[in-house]
Amino acid sequence: MNILDTLITGREQKDVDRARALAARGYDNLSAAEREEWNRGLRGAYSAMDLNRVVGALEYLTQRMADAGTAADYAPVLIPHKTPEAFDVSGNVTRWREWSDKTWIDYDKPRLPQWSAHLDNIVKLWKQTQTISAVVAPVWDPDEKGYLYITKTMDASQPCQITQSNGLLQLTVEALCDPDRVLPEDGVWTAERTESGWLATYRYPGGPYQDIQDALSALTLRCAVQDGVVDAVLVFRAALRYAPEQELGRCAVRWSSILYWRELEAAWPSWGSVKSAGLSWGQAARGGGIDD
């Protein structure tokens, strides 16, 4: 276990409502159980305890990056503290103790420069660590003889393999094709028709699949014709938290009502001459025009 395991990443609205309700009543009016809950640190509040956890996580990640030979642009934020140190007989403060360090105390109130510097450290670290890469392969091979069945859906996880990801917010797959001949299946992806085909979007990590490959596997495209050949180009893109959208790669897809041209080529040695004789692809696949 390290400092990252102590971060609260699953706050919900009910946690915020609970923190506000207890704060409105005041600490002195809370029950013993509620005070214990308050002292442990409320999930719905962002207190000095939370600030210190985040600072500890930033310093931990900065050190890990340094160990890996990557310099992180991290600038520690100094917090000025001021507490009464001496009083006169009337209880008035006669001397204050002042010092600065990197630890937030429960009575500290972040000022705008400190808060901005704290957030800036988070953003800079995100920018330096966010990455995504993928391997995208063509669905048919260079000589264009490997086809997909027209009667089945095309699984988008087949051509695209995400090899590394950090800071991903959204995946998009654009299908450049005839939008009336290739249709997206209903599912967790949001699909909208474009002038050049279809655009499917998956928002991560808010979607139901936390594994990116599982999310890609949930995207399917269906060929809507019963004969002939339909070509498409799939363009895979990713949007990161603090970076412009980037293209991961693209691949060509071909649907056909025939199985594989490699098998047909072996079954019909004269297939090439049939094709040049002006027959349709479907006729050639069925052996039309070939003398037994």
Description:
The chain is an alpha+beta fold and 292 residues long. 29% of the residues lie in helices and 30% in strands. It has eight helices and 13 strands. The chain has helices at residues 13-25, 32-40, 48-67, 112-129, 212-217, 261-267, 271-276, 281-285; strands at 79-87, 93-101, 131-136, 148-149, 153-155, 160-166, 168-176, 182-184, 190-194, 197-203, 220-223, 229-240, 246-256. It has a six-stranded mixed beta sheet with strand order 4-13-12-7-10-9, with no helix packed on it. A hairpin with a 2-residue loop joins strand 9 and strand 10. The termini are far apart. Residues 273-292 have low confidence and may be disordered.
Offer a few descriptive terms:
292 residues, alpha+beta, elongated, disordered C terminus
The coarse silhouette is: elongated
Approximately what portion of the residues adopt beta-strand conformation? 25-35%
SSE order, one letter for each helix or strand: HHHEEHEEEEEEEEHEEEHHH
Biggest sheet strand order reads: 4-13-12-7-10-9
Sheet of most strands: 6 strands, mixed
Give the C-alpha Rg: 30 Å
Number of helices: 8
Label the structural class.
alpha+beta
- Uncertain runs are 273-292
In which range does the helix fraction lie?
25-40%
The end-to-end span amounts to 73 Å
Number of strands: 13
Q: Overall pLDDT, averaged? A: 81
